[in-house]
Amino acid sequence: MSDTDVATLTEAWGRHGVLFLRDQHLTPDEHIAFAERFAEIDLASNKVGVFGKVAALTATLNDGDRVEIYRPLIADPKEARKKRAAEGKAMKKGAREQSAEPGTS
């Protein structure tokens, strides 16, 4: 995996708090090597899961299982949704006001 790919995934991890990498066929050693590219992933402190259910690091995986690594939330999801909704309303209001101005379409 390139450094650019790692940077992209790290940015997505920070933004969303969870990464879903579908259809990856990796051996346990390849999973470990992948995780080691991300210094902020500490399996001793971050919870892990399979398909949205918390699981032990020692859990047996089946072919096609979606392994998830969770980090603590950095923002309250309810407050973040409220903020996005308010920003969306402000954008819509601005668009309506702009289209109501004379000489605009």
What fraction strand? 5-15%
Shape: elongated
- Give the beta-strand count: 3
Tell me the helix content.
40-55%
Number of helices: 3
**End-to-end Cα distance:** 48 Å
- The total domain count is 2
Q: Element order, helices and strands?
A: HHEEEH
In which order are the strands of the major sheet placed?
2-1-3
Mean pLDDT: 78
- Kindly provide the radius of gyration, computed on alpha-carbon positions and rounded to a whole number of angstroms: 20 Å
Stretches with pLDDT under 50, minimum 5 residues = none
Largest sheet: 3 strands, antiparallel
Structural class by sheet pairing and helices: mainly alpha
Describe the structure concisely for a colleague.
The chain has 105 residues and is mainly alpha-helical. Helix content is 45%, strand content 9%.
Can you give a write-up of this model?
The chain contains three helices and three strands; from the N terminus they run ααβββα. With 105 residues, it is mostly helical. It folds into two domains: 3-74, no CATH class; 75-105. A three-stranded antiparallel beta sheet has the order 2-1-3, with no helix packed on it. The chain starts with a helix and ends in a 5-residue tail after the last helix.
Annotation keywords:
2 domains; 3 helices; elongated
Helix and strand arrangement:
Layout: H1 3-16, H2 28-36, E1 48-50, E2 53-55, E3 67-69, H3 77-100
Antiparallel strand pairs: 1-2, 1-3
